[in-house]
Amino acid sequence: MDALQRLALLRAGSTVGDGTPGRPSATLEIVGSGAVVIACVLSSNGLELAVVDLRRKIKLRRFESFDAIGLVPLETLTRIAGTINEVHASLGSTCVGIGISVPGVFDAHSGVARAVLPLGWRNIPMAAVLDDSLPADVPVLIAHDATLGALAEFRMGAGRGAQRLLYLAGQQIGVGSALILADEQSGRSDHPLQAGHLIVDPSGPQCSCGSRGCLELLVDGRAMVAAMSDVSSAPSSMDAVLSALSQSTAVPAAMDRIVDHLQVGLISLVNTLSPDRVVFAGTLSPLMSRFEERMNAALELSVVAQIQPVTLVGSTFGDAQIFGAAELAFEPLLRDPEGLFKRVSRATAES
Ligand SMILES: [Zn+2]
User: Fold this and answer.
1) Alpha helices of the chain — where are they, by DSSP H?
2) Torsion of CA 289, 294, 295, 296, to 10 degrees
3) Is residue 232 domain-shared with residue 298, that is, in the same domain?
4) 287 and 341 share one domain
5) Considering the entire predicted model, what is its pTM?
6) For labelling alongside 48, which of 62, 81, 168, 204 has CA 20 to 30 A away?
7) Given this model, what pLDDT does residue 14 score?
8) Mean per-residue pLDDT for 116-128?
9) Residue 142 in contact with residue 111, Cβ under 8 Å?
10) Which residues line ion ligand 1, judged by CB < 5 Å?
């Protein structure tokens, strides 16, 4: 923080900050235009982009729609780079990082997107392609979408203060998951998970992973829409399911079976990963709020939860990945403020 203040990016506000290490407190004010990052979320239907400042305020949002499944990976990466370069060129502030969320397994050591199944990608050298086409000297950081969702909750939301945070994000198709461990020396360690493929019913439906009865098939958005459609002649939609859950209107018995499966999955996950907090996000957040008592009752059957407290909470953020990608993108600046800021400023002046 001192280094950031020496660089005149921030000054103390009128009240004292909360002293949280590793990130600026909400009471700090940005001097002048400050530093920003470009945070991106890649999905099968396009790229969501936000410019985020040091106070974690979104300065600009943009959504570029394209069918990433219909494009070859290189075309998608070229489009992403084009959009980011366009936004970067229009910034009035210094960009100190670019964070990109991908909906699948990304290997940070090799820079290769190993298995991004929603886009049909396997072993795509994503970091190398983007490093060649994005602004020089601006660090580019890429990570798994659920891990970034977990990171946003861990730093600024429902996961703050947790030592072992398990994050489960229900999507229309699938359940994203990650584990974040607090670490005194490095701040934290991230562990992308595939908890959606935890088998909860071996005689259940066939999953694309090869197993049967995976958790995500039984509790994701598709399962919820099918449960609601059971009692209605008209097919239901995800919006109808979410509004029924949040407005406490009656939900069909089939929704109870979804909660049963989520309970079974939760008990196994708590017993194996030993979290002290579980954040339910996406479509699972309203489900958890509606059936909170039953989810907490499930913990009585977990041997781990019997001996140490486990707190279940709904997510704070609706679009946690954007904030998680921004957190990731700010990390090089927070690790070495003077070095990075000088390097980026020099590159900006030369371009
Ligand atoms: Zn599976």
Assistant:
1) 2-6, 73-90, 126-133, 145-156, 215-219, 221-229, 238-246, 253-273, 284-290, 292-298, 303-307, 320-335, 337-350
2) 100
3) yes
4) no
5) 0.89
6) 168
7) 52
8) 93
9) yes
10) 197, 207, 209, 211, 214
Q: Are residues 175 and 279 in the same domain?
A: yes
Burial 162-175 (b: 16+ CB within 10 A, else e): bebbbbbbbbeebb
Band the pLDDT of 179: cuts 50, 70, 90.
very high
148 alpha carbon to ligand 1 midpoint, in Å? Answer: 22
Q: In this predicted structure, what is the pLDDT of residue 253? A: 84
Is 155 domain-assigned?
Answer: no
Can you give the CATH number for the domain in which 258 is found?
3.30.420.40
Q: Is the Cα torsion angle 79, 82, 85, 86 positive or negative in sign?
A: negative
- CA of 202 relative to ligand 1 center, distance in Å: 11
Residue 239 in this model has a pLDDT that exceeds 70: yes
Strand 187-193 and strand 175-183: the pairing is: antiparallel
Domain that holds residue 180: 160-314
**E strand or H helix at 58:** strand 58-65
Residues 60-100 have pLDDT tens digits of: 999 999 999 889 999 999 999 999 999 999 998 889 999 99
Write the pLDDT tens digit of every residue in 124-137: 999 999 999 999 88
Residues in the chain: 351
CA distance 296 to 163: 19
Domains contained in the chain, number: 2
Distance 343 CA to ligand 1 centre (A): 45
Does 132 lie in the same domain as 57? yes
* pLDDT score of 327 more than 70: yes
| 238 Cα–ligand 1 center, Å | 21
Inside any domain, residue 152: no
What's the confidence (pLDDT) of residue 16? 44
164-170 sheet: strands from edge to edge: 187-193, 175-183, 164-170, 277-282, 311-314
CA of 196 to the centre of ligand 1 (A): 7
Domain assignment present for residue 107? The answer is yes
| 324 is a domain residue | yes
Task: Output the pLDDT for position 17.
Answer: 41
